[in-house]
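[recover] target loaded
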């Protein structure tokens, strides 16, 4: 009885003492207990989808990397942890010991301190090897590796204007990266850690949804060939009148005229997609505004965002006057080397003139007086109506940002002189992609097309998620007129001004053009050519534009 009474008294005392502690210091001890729990509440990043060429070669991809995160409170909880942990961090991740020590000392209670981002897998493995050997390295504590992804472009400068790049937070900037941002991006996952009612640790994981791959129309081999030719051209001409820089800009578009798929689009100079903010020159001598302007100019896609006077390449469209019946291929004209329009004397490129010639001869000779006469026959109203039918007044709808609009006179302000110059591609401006798309319509049987880069979206598990459709639109010219235009442009190569575009074994059609930049008389020109093959059933059309 005495023993039993003693035990009861002891329990009464303990209960009283616990009640006192809970009442006086309960909040303090609750914090101590909870502070020792290893909660895990973190974001699991998604993998942004790849951009691949038409054959499946990766043009842009996301590689797994790791962020080095330390639990400063754990490291500083025991003095014997500090030096071994800092030594391991320095050895594996190229971190300075004094910098790590400074960060830990500055944030001793931090449970989440990022020391370095974007660490590769080799460095990760090196650190894992150290921490896994607990016998040799028992005091390396409080470090964990957070998974992440970084955007990589295997071919660096290839198609830089077209592909674009990403900024922080997987936000696409320029090109395909921007246009298909929502498809390429996924949704982050989340890992939650919490205490249940019995103070047991529970873990819940919501896996991330990775982004989808965008299959593009770009052909890696063709794109590489085009870029190599541009580099060789600029290298060849850099010591001429361009003062050592080659052309101001050289742009090339290679497209399927039947459906608008773009096989290659390139311009020089380019930039490295893996380091898109690097600009040439001495940065110390540039203001912030100058740096911004240089970067924007570097990222700009001239084939889509710039406009220019197309010159005689536009005569492809004027030839569509055949549709109106105001001219036939056999109609005869006379070219003395110029054409008087009101008070203006407008020259032909051949000073002595071409003499008597048919309309077909005029196309082959690229004779301005012939096209001035044809434009006059069409008239201002019908000329503008037909250009509207061609889509000249609208953007193409290409699936990359920054497309420029056509710059053209208002119809009410166009007189005989303006109509004359417009008929051979001067006094208005349009983008290269707009011009090559309309030219494609002229030779594909007469159907308007939408130039594009996107083919399909493939989900992370490899299943087809979406196929992008770009159907041919209404006819802009009849099949008969399209056949005549192809025939005439084939003659331009076989017998006319475009003979340098001939390729042995292929039937090629082409139209050359030279336009003088504003202000007139400054000696600066844009040279361009539109070519296609084969003439009978075109499978490819290309535009080359050389600025100055």
């Amino acid at each position: 009885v005495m023993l039993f009474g003693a035990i009861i008294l002891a329990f009464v005392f303990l209960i009283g003492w616990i009640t006192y502690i809970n009442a006086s210091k309960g909040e303090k001890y609750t914090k101590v207990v909870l502070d020792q729990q290893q909660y895990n509440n973190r974001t699991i990043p998604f993998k942004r989808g790849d951009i691949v060429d038409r054959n499946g070669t990766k043009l842009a991809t996301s590689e797994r990397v790791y962020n080095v995160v330390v639990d400063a409170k754990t490291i500083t909880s025991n003095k014997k942890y500090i030096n071994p942990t800092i030594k391991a961090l320095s050895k594996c991740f190229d971190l300075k010991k004094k910098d790590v020590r400074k960060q830990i000392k500055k944030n001793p209670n931090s449970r989440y301190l990022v020391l370095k981002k974007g660490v590769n897998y080799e460095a990760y493995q090196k650190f894992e090897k150290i921490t896994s050997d607990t016998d040799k390295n028992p005091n390396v504590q409080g470090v964990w590796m957070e998974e992440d992804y970084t955007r990589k472009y295997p071919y660096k400068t290839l198609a830089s204007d077209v592909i674009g790049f990403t900024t922080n937070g997987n936000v696409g900037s320029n090109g395909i990266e921007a246009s298909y941002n929502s498809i390429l991006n996924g949704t982050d996952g989340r890992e939650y850690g919490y205490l249940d009612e019995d103070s047991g640790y529970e873990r819940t994981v919501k896996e991330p949804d990775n982004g989808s791959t965008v299959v593009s129309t770009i052909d890696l081999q063709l794109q590489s060939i085009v870029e190599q030719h541009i580099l060789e051209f600029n290298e060849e001409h850099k010591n001429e009148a361009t003062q050592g820089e080659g052309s101001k800009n050289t742009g090339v578009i290679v497209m399927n005229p039947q459906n608008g798929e773009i096989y290659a689009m390139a311009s020089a100079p380019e930039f490295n997609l893996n380091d898109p903010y690097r600009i040439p020159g001495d940065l110390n001598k540039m203001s912030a505004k100058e740096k911004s302007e240089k970067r924007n100019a570097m990222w700009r896609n001239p084939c889509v965002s710039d406009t220019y006077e197309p010159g005689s390449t536009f005569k492809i469209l004027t030839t569509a006057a055949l549709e109106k019946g105001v001219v036939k291929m056999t109609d005869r004209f006379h070219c003395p080397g110029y054409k008087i329009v009101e008070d203006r004397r407008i020259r032909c490129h051949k000073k002595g003139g071409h003499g008597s010639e048919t309309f077909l001869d005029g196309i082959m000779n690229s004779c301005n007086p012939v096209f001035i006469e044809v434009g006059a026959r069409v008239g201002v109203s019908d000329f503008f109506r037909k250009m509207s039918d061609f889509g000249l007044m609208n953007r193409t709808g290409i699936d990359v940002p920054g497309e420029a609009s056509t710059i053209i006179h208002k119809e009410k302000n166009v007189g005989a002189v303006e109509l004359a110059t417009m008929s051979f591609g001067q006094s208005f401006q349009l983008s290269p992609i707009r011009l090559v798309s309309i030219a494609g319509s002229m030779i594909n049987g007469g159907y308007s097309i939408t130039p594009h880069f996107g083919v399909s979206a493939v989900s992370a598990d490899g299943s087809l998620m979406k196929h992008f459709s770009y159907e041919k639109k209404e006819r802009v010219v009849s099949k008969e007129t399209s056949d005549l235009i192809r025939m005439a442009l084939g003659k331009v190569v076989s017998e006319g001004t475009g003979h340098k575009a001939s390729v042995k074994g292929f039937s090629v059609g082409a139209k050359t053009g030279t336009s003088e930049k504003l202000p007139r008389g400054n000696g600066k020109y844009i040279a361009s050519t539109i070519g296609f093959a084969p003439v009978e059933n075109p499978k490819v059309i290309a535009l080359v534009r050389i600025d100055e």
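[recover] notes: The mean pLDDT is 91.
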